[in-house]
Amino acid sequence: MKPRVLTVAGSDSGGGAGIQADLKTMLALGTHGMSVVTAVTAQNSLGVQGAWELPVDAVRAQYRSVVDDIGVQAVKTGMLASAELVEAVADLIAGTDAPAVVDPVGVSKHGDALLAASALDSVRTRLLPAATVATPNLDEVAQLTGVHVASRDHLRRAAGAVLEFGPRWALIKGGHLSGDAVDLLTDGTEEHWLSAPRLDNRHTHGTGCTLASAIAAHLARGESVPAAVTAAKAYVTGAIAAGFSLGAGIGPVDHAWELRRGTA
Q1: Domain of life, per the record (predicted)?
Q2: What is the pLDDT of residues 196-220, one digit of tens each?
């Protein structure tokens, strides 16, 4: 049976991030993607013009509908918006026998807030302890831990601060630093440094969602966490290289780039 992956995240009407990016990624990587919509955004290449979270009961019903019938081999979380949604989703994934990739979405690519400040403590105490892999970027690390990363040398300290909240693995994404895009994956005992050349392409909308869902897809295929993260990093690097202009602002990465390899 085809591996099944569930994204629990917000909808991006522009199609570059959120559940749209997740489902495209899951398809490209040979898995069956399913979705639990937590919020609806009015969003385009210029930013987020509006966001409306769904009721907790609607989120819980979507999750149970999928998991109880179809089943999942991995779960990925994204935009959860409020403390109530964070806590409900944390309980759901903690009770599901599948690895969970938690992308603790705090702000959009354009700097728009996607998580209420009042929800941060719930992310720390409820969601991160349920995560197999947590994938914060540097802004999210600062939000959650107070650790500000200014150079590659600080990534280890940031990872340690995230791991204190209980995820099995932390992937600290250093893409906002100068130089090559260097990430650190660690469980506190072993470290994996992943580096990719910095690409001259401004169209990077959806990279965080895409990376987290790619990790989930590889985990659903039975790969180890280090192998899944390494493969996901390579996939996202290719997607960024193929990113394209859309609208008047920041365009999306190209989730289908790997499907086209060898077919041109």
Answers
A1: Bacteria
A2: 888 889 999 999 999 999 999 999 9
Which residue in 31, 209, 237, 251 is the catalytic one?
209
> Is 209 known to be catalytic?
yes
16 is catalytic: no
Residue 84 domain-assigned (yes or no): yes
Known catalytic membership, residue 33? no
pLDDT of residue 264: 38
* Residue 264 placed within a domain: no
Domain of residue 208, residue span: 4-257
Cα-Cα end-to-end distance for the chain = 29
* Percent of residues, the chain, with pLDDT higher than 70: 95
Rounded to the nearest 10 degrees, the angle between the axes of helix 18-28 and helix 207-220 is 40
The pTM of the full predicted model, rounded to 2 decimals, is 0.96
The catalytically annotated residue of 16, 33, 106, 208 is 208
pLDDT at position 261 is 74
Please identify which of the residues 14, 106, 206, 243 carries the catalytic annotation. 206
CATH number of the structural domain spanning residue 105: 3.40.1190.20
51-106: per-residue pLDDT in tens?
999 999 999 999 999 999 999 999 999 999 899 999 999 999 999 999 999 999 87
Q: Confirm whether 263 is domain-assigned.
A: no
The CB-side HSE value for 204 (13 A sphere, CA atoms) comes to 18
* Side chain identity, residue 103: D
Instruction: Return the residue matching tokens 């998991």.
Output: 67
pLDDT of amino acid 119: 85
Quote the strand ranges of 97-242, DSSP E: 100-102, 133-134, 169-173, 181-186, 191-196
Among the options 135, 204, 210, 237, which is catalytic?
204
Number of domains in the chain: 1
204 catalytic? Reply is yes
